[in-house]
Design a protein that fits this description.
Rossmann fold; 12-stranded antiparallel sheet; 10-stranded mixed sheet; 38 strands; Esterase-like
Length: about 775
Amino acid sequence: MTAPPRTLGHVSILDLTLLPLRIARHVADAVLHPAAPAHAPPAELVVVDGMPEGVPPAARRPEPRLPVPSNWPFGEEFPRTCGTGRLAGGALFWTDFLYDDHGATGVPVGDLKIQAPPRGTYVYPDGPAAGNGADLFRVAIGLTETDTWWRIDWNTLVDPSVPIALFTFDTDPSRAGTADWPVGAGVRSEGIDMALLVSGRGATLIDLTTRATTPMEHSVDTQSRSFLARIPRSVLEPTGSWTVRLAAGLANAAGDGFADVPAERGALPGQPNVYNVAFRTNAQEPPHLNFWSDSAQAEALGHGDVSAFAATVPWARLAARDTEPEPVITGPSTRWYVSSVELGQGVAGGLAAYDILSTKPQFLGRVQPYSICLPSSYAPGGALPLTLLLHSLSLGQSQFAAIDPRLLHEVCEGRDSVVVTPLARGPSSWYFDTGELDVWEVWARVAEQLGTDPNRTVISGYSMGGYAAYKLGLSYPQVFSQAVVLAGPPACGVRLLPDVDIPADLDPDSPCAREGDTWKLLVNARWLPYVIAHGLVDELVPFASAAEQVLELDRLGYRHRFTVYPLEDHIAWVLQDKFEDPISHMETALRQADPGHITFAWYPQLVRADLGIGPHQVWWLSELTADPSVTARRGAVAEVDARSYARPDPTHTIRHHRGVIPHFDPTPGLYSELDWQVGRPVAPLPYLTLRLTGVASLAVDVARAGLAALPSSTITVATDVAARITLAGLPAGASVQLDGQPAGATVAVPAGRHRITLARRAAG
């Protein structure tokens, strides 16, 4: 493809940065021309395993199973929603919040520039704590004929000597009990009478009335990252219902008590030595400004009373093996899944010190959290639309619940859509490599466990998340029904304008160094409408960069809507939480079925076969690979333009609309849009054209392209490198010729212009 000159017409960059509304109107008239809902031609959509066709292999893999402690006699019915529990098959299963191990609010330490700070201030010493060493992941309490079982699964367990956990029991509400927890925990809760200490060194039952201690049978399983203890019923018989609490911290050298948390690790004098308290419910940790679901925990640890966080264990129901359904919460919550890759354990550098600008993965473990919002209409077995709402630079999966609840409510409840925000392995992965993998695996788990409509998925995001709406939407245009970009840059990281080269000091291993910009991929948006919204005085993502994207969409004649807010910048806009116009233009239409004309460009360097990500199929084209000469060049793209006249797209007329958004939400804005008025269908012809640039191989499904039903047809190929073309879906007995010579279903096409002819043998 020959790119047009990169210009903003008669509007200068200086003009684009001026504030007055007069200038903004001038910009709108000269620059803006955006999108409207797709009018997908009717055709059957191919759906596999709840995921749309065209997703990369990673999105179709089954979820790995976590290891199970070898001597655990119960099932694995842990809830997927954090802050919830259930009874199942003789045990109570609880799932805690992930990466919430920050203790009390004490002395701020570490990198104070963090954009999504935890409420607690505790950090870890360097070494095997790995920035996450006392993070409770899951808890289970079971009952057999001879024992009660007490299981703790840790998020991170590099060294079993690092964490320590303490259960406390109120076994008889009629007795007063005591309040202070033993072994240096430093917290209290009224009415406790027994405690169970569990560390990597052993387990001890403590009678809080007599202070007698009794060693219990104990095991450590480093594969499952589990501590397991058993209390014989002959020692402590479970009757009635117990109130059980649990707290975790770092073990002292002997493993028989909590290590002190000094000021240099975030604690004020006299504050508890507890990093994490279990049995906090989703309702007790409301999402507002609560990025890591530790607000109530930090407050309780600040005064030391953890009475509010408890689980009731009904022993008779455990004995009866009562089973409750999986808890599902409408509204915002946090869920977890098991990734196909493990990069290590813990948090790289620790949460309080991680590099908010590093594109490297920061959250390394095999279990990853994601935020989800389920509308009140959600019911198991349904298939609601899905919105991928991707987070900004230096924030995380809880961004929208924490600081943009209105936006989240409008997208979730207002549009009756399931909304998902992955962590993407860190605050600044730019959704490359394992950051992208996280998106696909989260989507697959949501489709599998909760059910969504694979044909109605919108990809959206703010800032870095808006960049991902460009990057992923354009890389997989078949997968989505619409893309919505809020203040999103068209290029990764510091390279916000297509003509700006990568700085010499940029990490050469960074994925940003392998990617040019999404401007080169805009040709892919023929069947994916875009909604783009931007502030004219955006100080982080220059308005000119967004305007250039819109100019190119306009030149291509692709559907889009562009909203400009002359008085909005980058930071204030997201904090105002007002996105009425772009959200009102989010659609729930179907994604595009097989079209007749496909244009597709991709960055071969971003294909990661080891992770199962990267474009490989787009409608009736598949097995896409690039020539090695393209793959070796940083920022180079391969491109295919395929047009089947045997299944022609309906004609359409391009229509432009411009206007003013008068309401103050957030401030008056200007909009411009381009939509299509679909016309009459076109009669088919027996031709298909392929124009290949840097393409080494591809497969054409001739049946889906409309050629198989014709008695004869011609495929004209123009390629700049030798290419291997596989003809899939050929009718039985069909003959293939390349430039008049017999060929097979796989045709080796030299560089240049060639003709492949297909013919069906006459019957009889």
